[in-house]
Amino acid sequence: MYAKAVISSPLVLRIILTGLALFTVGMSSLFSQPFECDGRGYLASVSLDDGSTTLYQSSTADIENSEWVPIEKYEDQVISPIGFSVITNLIYGLDQTNWNLISIDKSGKQTILTSMIDKIDTTYEYHAGAISPSGRRFHIVKRDPETGNDLEMLNVRLDTDTYRIGILSMSSDLPISLGDMAYSPRFGTVLGFDENRNTVVDVNVNFGLVTDFNYQSTTKAETMGSLFFGRDGKMFGFGGTSGGSENTMFSVSPRNGAVDKLFSATSGDETDGCGCGYEIAFEKKISQPKVLPCSEQLITYYTNNVSCAIFSFVSLTDTLPLGVEIKKVERLHRVAKIDTIENKQIITFAIGAFLLGKDSTVLRVEVK
Questions:
Q1: How far apart are the C-alpha atoms of 228 and 130, rounded to whole Å?
Q2: What is the pLDDT of residues 315-327, one digit of tens each?
Q3: How does residue 16 score in pLDDT terms, banded at 50, 70 and 90?
Q4: How far is CA 42 from CA 54, 71, 332, 343, in A?
Q5: What average pLDDT does the segment 270-292 reach?
Q6: What are the φ/ψ torsions at residue 303 (nearest 5 degrees)?
Q7: What is d(CA 120, CA 289) in angstroms, rounded to the nearest whole number?
Q8: CB distance 287 to 252 below 8 Å
Q9: Shortest CA distance to 193 belongs to which of 206, 203, 204?
Q10: Can you tell me the distance from the alpha carbon of 10 to that of 300, in angstroms, rounded to the nearest whole number?
Q11: Kindly report the CA angle at 206 between 130 and 212, in degrees rounded to 5?
């Protein structure tokens, strides 16, 4: 992806992640209406009474103050787990009634991608979905229905027409039962919620190792079928406070695992959630709103990669107007360079790869 902007005033630019990585996908995605990657959350709420699933989305990206709005109800289908791909901007899910891998678009239309009957053991349960930042792998946890404990992690390849599956054994010092898991946009790591221990856990999706060294247990939630990130690295959960149905929205600290109840919402026997709070943000600030001749100003360029991954081929260019000259580089961004072309000074953020986290370039300029 290449983005170019000529800037003469303060700017805030958010790069949409679709198109930052390319791979072969099924033809079905070409005829789907993609969601916007705008910070909203999504819930698949399952009713075990009639075996139906309702897909909800938060009304805004301000999840803490949002309502949950239904997109579509799927009769006679238990669709769980689900995951959001930032590459196709589609939701992927496992239909555990008909045992199909499906995609769902913005209108709620579902497309069958492949039958899973010959790919997985349908006598087990499957929970806790998450899709990798590259969009290539859909992680799904396999659970023993008799013990309620997790056994393996399935990695469904979404970038192949055969949707082949890799399998990892899951390991922990105690039996685990993950309600859900999600990629941290700030660190690219995977966090989950273990309903056996009522605590946030680290999930290594490359080796299947689950640990809880950094997190405190909670008495405020007994189940957490949905876990996802919103804007600004905030993590949210949707679950139950005392067993039974899942009808409560929680804020969850990705730092220490603290859980706080936000509000009650739509009710389901089980839920699974996902979201798209991932972005690469650019912001330009000028120290003074008005510029006088022969004065100095500070121009600061901020970048914040909260996309879960390191991305290349992202470029932003700012051309300073004639009469504005850089006198001193106070701080240089790790991926920035400055060129002078035809008496114009050009700042380009395009070198190497955009690493996770925040960075900035600060220029002291003179206005002639």
A1: 9
A2: 778 888 878 888 8
A3: very low
A4: 10, 10, 39, 50
A5: 82
A6: -125, 145
A7: 61
A8: no
A9: 203
A10: 10
A11: 75
Q: What is the pTM of this model?
A: 0.79
Banded pLDDT at 166 (limits 50, 70, 90): very high
Q: What is the pLDDT of residues 203-216, one digit of tens each?
A: 999 999 999 988 99
* Position with higher pLDDT, 98 vs 299: 98
Task: Confirm if 210 and 192 have CB atoms less than 8 A apart.
Answer: yes
Q: 323 is written with which tokens?
A: 């009469």
Characterize 93-114 residue by residue with b for buried, 16 or more Cβ atoms within 10 angstroms of its Cβ, and e for exposed.
bbbbeeebbbbbbeebebbebb
* DSSP track, 292-360: -TTEEEEEEEEEEEESSS-B-S--EEEEPPTTEEEEEEEE--TTEEEEEETTEEEEEE-SS-B-SEEEE
CA–CA separation, 42 vs 274, rounded Å?
Answer: 5
The first and second tokens of residue 66, run together, are 């949002």
Amino acid letter at 69?
Answer: V
The residue to which tokens 């919402």 are assigned: 265
